[in-house]
Design brief:
This protein is an alpha/beta fold and 230 residues long. The chain has a single domain, classed as Rossmann fold (3-Layer(aba) Sandwich). 34% of the residues lie in helices and 27% in strands. The strands form two sheets. It has a six-stranded mixed β-sheet, sandwiched between helices. It has a four-stranded antiparallel β-sheet with strand order 2-1-4-5, with helices on one face. A hairpin with a 2-residue loop joins strand 9 and strand 10. The structure holds adenosine-5'-triphosphate. Adenosine-5'-triphosphate binds next to helix 1. It holds the Pfam family ABC_tran. GO terms for molecular function: ATP binding. InterPro entries: AAA+_ATPase, ABC_transporter-like_ATP-bd, ABC_transptr_urea_ATP-bd_UrtE, BCAA_Transport_ATP-bd_LivF, P-loop_NTPase. Belongs to the ABC transporter superfamily.
Amino acid sequence: MLQVTDIDLSYGASRCLRGVSLSVGPGQVAAVLGRNGVGKSSLLRSIIGLEKIQGGSILWEGNEMRGLGPAERARAGIGYVPQGREIFPFLTVQENLETALAAAPRGSAVPDEVFDLFPILRQFLRRRGGDLSGGQQQQLAIGRALTARPRLLILDEPTEGIQPNVIKDIAKVIHHLAHDRNFAIVLVEQYFEFARDLADTITVMVRGEVALSGRTSELDEAEVRKLLTV
Ligand SMILES: Nc1ncnc2c1ncn2[C@@H]1O[C@H](COP(=O)(O)OP(=O)(O)OP(=O)(O)O)[C@@H](O)[C@H]1O
C-alpha cells in the first residue's frame, strides 16, 4: 500500500504542492488528473524521491520513504516511467532494459514477462532506442521499469504523443499488471477517458492541491471534466 499524506513541495519561493494526499493498494490503479502545470509530475517525482518534500509523509508497504533517495526507493519496489519516456537513444533496446539491472543482484536478467507483454521489444532487441517509434519507446520505458521488478508502478502520461492503437495496448498492460499481477499503480494522465476506463480511483489536482478525489464509479463526471477545462 502507498499512502501519501499531506505533502508539501516548494521550488524556491514558489509552492508547488500543498497538503496533497493519495493512496493506492495492490491490485489498484489510482489516476491523477489535472491541467498542465498543476503539479502532477512534481507529485510523482516526490513519491520516487527526485524532489525533496518539505512536509507530509510517504509510506510504502508501511515504511517511511521521505528520507530515502531514489535508488533506495527503487530497491524498495517503486518503479517509475517518466514523462517523455527518457529512453537512451544510442543504446539498444536490450541495453536500455539492462540499465534497470544496475541495482539488481549479480546475474539478474530482464524478466521474460517484459517480452511477453511487449513482443516488439524482443523483435527489436538490437535496434537503437532512438530508432523506435514513440509508442515502441513507451513500451520500452515500461519494460525497463518492470525489469527492476517493482511492486508499485508510477507512470507519468504514458499516452502522451502516442497513436490510438498503441494507447489501447498500453491500457491492456496496465490493467493486466494491476488485476492479474497485483501491482499498485499510480497514473498521471491528461485524457479523462483513458483514466476513467482504467482507474479505481481518480484524484483531480488544481494549482498544487487536490480538488476532488474518490472512487471512479462514484465521481461526478461533469464535475471532473469542469476541473480539467477551467
Ligand atoms: N524544477 C523546477 N523548478 C521550478 N519550478 C518547477 C520545477 N518543476 C516544475 N516546476 C513548476 O511547478 C509547477 C508544477 O509543474 P509539474 O510539472 O509538476 O506540473 P504538471 O501538472 O505535471 O504539468 P504537465 O502536465 O505540464 O506535465 C509548474 O508551475 C512548473 O512550472
